[in-house]
């Protein structure tokens, strides 16, 4: 099926403004259907959930829990395995604190060199508790080296946490095989799904113990995210936040917690966020995740062709568009670089070979092409690549080939 991006764009009110939006890996735009669902909740159902027995509160609770079930169904999970949080970052931080009690000094955690800070810093925090973090290496195209990964698994590796899709390289990791290896090693397996759940057909499998993703990257509102956890594991985890709603009974001597997922949702939850995320899930299901994946691959094929044909572009990640998600990160070499560098070397001055990514992004922005620049919250990865950040084009179901072409044409206008 060829998606009609032009018709889809009509569902997104922000595109009344005239720009090319290529920063969906940071946050997606929102369709009317999501905006209206939130508006309808506040106009007709607003009340605090799980707390009262009057009809309005019951209706609000029913809508909130229906939203949870809809999200669960979207990834093939059970409602009681879905914990609403603010975003992927909060979910992974929660796991870092909650699983700390399951780890001991001398244990090891295995992640990869391509991780976003959100799947790096929470685990590095545990090094101060005597828990070592190890890193799986990458091959020359930016895939996780499965042989290196396997060699670093051992009896001391109690937890493996990997991104499904790199927000810099676009790499779609083989989490089926990597997860299988982790479980054979009897390690807890955590998946960062921030860049995959919005873009790929996805179903929970038995190897995945925990999965985190964000609503705002998949057409939903900001401030709502999801932690999936196997119910048996969630039952065994301590709550991180304490307060209202998450208890069955409290005395001055004893606390009895609610069952998951309410056990982890202390205080008034983000009901509007859950409602908006559920509406976003409905929208994505209507379009079809297979169709979205195919559409993004078509755009990716064009982006790689244009990058390959421009001798001033250095891009990162797999060269096969079928092994990538809907983004490309790159740097732009100055057209006068050879002449400039020759003059500087004669004076023993060392310089970088790329135009700074912020300067490129500012230039593109003046052309109404909106793209990301900098480290993309993956500074160690860029340093591993030997570059000081980069520019990132990331697309979604509302972009088309003409926009990709126009973005690369704009780079050609940067005559420096």
The shape, in one word, is globular
* Whole-number count of domains: 2
CATH topology of the largest domain: Aspartate Aminotransferase, domain 2
Q: How many strands appear in the DSSP assignment? A: 14
- By CATH, the architecture of the largest domain is named 3-Layer(aba) Sandwich
Largest beta-sheet characterization: 7 strands, mixed
Strand portion: 15-25%
The CATH H-level homologous superfamily of the largest domain: Type I PLP-dependent aspartate aminotransferase-like (Major domain)
The amount of helix comes to 25-40%
CATH class categorisation of the largest domain: Alpha Beta
Mean pLDDT equals 94
Radius of gyration: 23 Å
User: In DSSP terms, counting alpha (H) and pi (I) runs of 4 or more, how many helices?
Assistant: 14
Query: What is the string of SSEs from the N terminus onward?
Result: HEHHEHEHEHEHEEEHEEHHEEHHEHEH
The structure class reads alpha/beta
Q: How would you describe what is shown here?
A:
The chain is α/β, with parallel strands linked by helices and 416 residues long. 37% of the residues lie in helices and 16% in strands. Strands 2-8-7-6-5-3-4 form a seven-stranded mixed beta sheet, with helices on both faces. The chain has a five-stranded mixed beta sheet with strand order 1-13-14-12-11. A two-stranded antiparallel sheet has the order 9-10. The chain is globular, with a radius of gyration of 23 Å. 45% of the residues are buried. The model has no long low-confidence stretch (mean pLDDT 94).
